[in-house]
Amino acid sequence: MLGIAGILLILLVVDVVCGPLLTLVLASPKKSRRERWVDLSVVAMVQVIALAYGLTSVFDARPVVLAFETDRLLIVTANEVQLERLTAAPEGYRSLPFVGLNMVGVRQARSTEEAMQSAESSLQGVSPGMRPDWWLPVDAVVPALLLKVRPIDDLIAARPTDRKILE
């Protein structure tokens, strides 16, 4: 899996390669000075647009929430959060951080009907941790979280090939 440094490196390489490659394709000594200037302006605009698109994509895919759902921790990215429900989130969680994570708990369904709607949403790819109106302050779920925590040695024993990553 790529970390943010790897993603930014790919973004930089694509942007740096994009300009010279387009210049190579468009440049011709037979063109007038004005035509070359227009070509290079187009190449520069394409590079700026590619960079802006890449940075916007990275910004939208930044992790913003670490949610504890029943028995697991879920990292939620900015583009996964249901923004229309953000106003229903608990006080202090009604905006997404630019840097870092909001640590939240996720409440259980309050009724059978709500549980069915939640299951249907989950089947469509929207887990409860992505729904701000289901968030709770993390302090409310610490006891449940502590019941689920296991030693890292158990995970290393179960996945010895990933030992370096886990340590």
Can you walk through the features of this model?
By secondary structure, the chain is α+β, with helices and mostly antiparallel strands. The protein folds into 2 domains: 4-60; 63-153, no CATH class. It is 49% helix and 13% strand. It contains 6 helices and 4 strands. It has helices spanning 4-26, 33-60, 112-123, 142-148, 152-158, 163-166, and strands at residues 63-69, 72-77, 102-106, 135-137. It has a 4-stranded mixed beta sheet, covered by helices on one side. Helix 1 (4-26) packs antiparallel against helix 2.
Tally of structural domains: 2
Q: Give the fraction of residues assigned to helices.
A: 40-55%
Q: What percentage of amino acids are in beta strands? A: 5-15%
Count the strands?
A: 4
> Largest sheet, if any?
4 strands, mixed
> Which sequence of strands runs across the widest sheet?
2-1-3-4
Distance, first to last CA: 17 Å
Judged by helices, strands and strand pairing, the structural class is alpha+beta
Q: Determine the number of helices (DSSP H or I, runs of at least 4 residues).
A: 6
Radius of gyration equals 23 Å
Mean pLDDT equals 89
Please tell me what the overall shape is: elongated
Q: Would you identify the regions where 5 or more consecutive residues have pLDDT less than 50?
A: none
The secondary-structure element order is HHEEEHEHHH
